[in-house]
């Protein structure tokens, strides 16, 4: 069985004045408040006081108060961003560190994030929401733009396809559970990579609204042929989210 690797890889920069606000506001930066502020992972604002990320980004932290979230900037350095401390981290009780099943966590902010042009929350799907294979979907983050490369300072985005579960099961086998979904391109290329973990897979619905379909979790390398990125399926954890965010 291939080793499970955390993910981050994109190609197109997201500009502050670009008409793609979802790319700017959905990928936040989790940073250390102790000493030098360093990029840890991505997270997605789903409520004024709550963000969605992956569990493996936060499970080893001794205290959530050692961390903060940077919002509203396309720069990983956080220039011009609003920084809000994290007061609580809630991990999914069914997380499996062996195969990364239920790799998801909620981050509670110490203060609500104000709504602005660059700070907005994404729509949460219902537990029975279906994302069609031909949906317009994007990945975003500050991760490496190639396997083994360095993180980027300017937020990146890439259009990806939702991969049918049976097709993705072929390369990943039984490690891939129904609580996971795959997105990318089976021929390789655009993908998430190191540094993108916890960031969003967002899809536009016919109404024009953007919904979060997945949370960047793991994969085999970055952009490799036959190995698309693997994401925690948000519809699978929607009821769990509702126990803390009642909407």
TrEMBL record:
Q: Which UniProt keywords apply?
A: Disulfide bond, Hydrolase, Protease, Serine protease
Single Gene Ontology BP term?
proteolysis
Q: Which InterPro entries match?
A: Peptidase_S1_PA, Peptidase_S1_PA_chymotrypsin, Peptidase_S1A, Trypsin_dom, TRYPSIN_SER
Pfam families listed in its UniProt record: Trypsin
Question: Domain Peptidase S1, which positions?
Answer: 39-246
- Asked if the keyword NAD belongs to this entry, the reply reads no
Q: Which GO terms describe its molecular function?
A: serine-type endopeptidase activity
Q: What is this protein called?
A: Peptidase S1 domain-containing protein
């Amino acid at each position: 069985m291939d080793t499970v690797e955390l993910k981050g890889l994109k190609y197109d920069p997201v500009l502050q004045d670009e008409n793609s606000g979802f790319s700017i506001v959905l990928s936040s930066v989790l940073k250390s408040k102790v000493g030098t502020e360093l990029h840890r992972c991505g997270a997605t604002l789903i409520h004024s006081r709550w963000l969605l990320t992956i569990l493996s980004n936060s499970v080893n932290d001794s205290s959530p108060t050692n961390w903060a979230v940077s919002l509203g900037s396309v720069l990983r350095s956080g220039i011009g961003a609003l920084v809000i401390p994290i007061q609580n981290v809630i991990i999914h009780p069914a997380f499996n560190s062996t195969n990364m099943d239920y790799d998801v966590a909620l981050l509670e902010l110490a203060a609500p994030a104000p709504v602005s042009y660059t700070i907005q929350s994404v729509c949460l799907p219902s537990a029975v929401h279906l994302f069609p294979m031909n949906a317009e979907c994007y990945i975003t983050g500050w991760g490496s733009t190639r396997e083994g490369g360095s993180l980027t300072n300017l937020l990146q985005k890439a259009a990806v396809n939702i991969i049918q579960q049976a097709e993705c099961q072929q390369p990943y086998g039984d490690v891939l559970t129904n609580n996971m979904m795959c997105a990318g391109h089976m021929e390789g290329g655009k993908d998430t990579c190191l540094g993108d973990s916890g960031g969003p897979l967002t899809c536009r619905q016919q109404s024009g609204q953007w919904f979060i379909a997945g949370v960047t979790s793991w994969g085999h390398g970055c952009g490799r042929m036959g190995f698309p990125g693997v994401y925690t399926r948000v519809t699978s954890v929607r009821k769990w989210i509702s126990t803390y965010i009642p909407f």
